[in-house]
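sorry for the late reply, my laptop died twice this morning and i had to redo everyting from scratch. anyway the thing you sent over, i finally got around to it. pasting the sequence first so we're on the same page, its 104 residues, then the predicted structure underneath. double check i copied it right bc i was rushing
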Amino acid sequence: MKRDEFIQKINKTFEQLGNPLRLKIFLKILSEGCDCDINSQSGYTGNCVSGIMKDLKLPQSTVSSYIKDLQDAKIIDCSKNGKYLYCRPNKETMTVLKSFADSA
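ok and here's the structure:
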């Protein structure tokens, strides 16, 4: 990844995670669904949208809107299974964030 792309990715990620509710949602997804199979939902526990709503006591509309923002920014990946939407951190973004933290 080129330096300008790297800086742009970090900026976009921090911009999205600068919102306290988006950050809470992301941290919930990070803690619950780090290394799961998004297609089979194998290894999932509480990282579906309904679980996030319940655990964080947030309305469905807020969680759905912020999940979409995080997904559009490629901070998380999501997959729908029936009526449930499951989320996990985007591995490429996690690598970029780790690289940024290591260089600081």
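The two ends are 18 Å apart (CA to CA).
thats about all i looked at so far, will dig more tmrw
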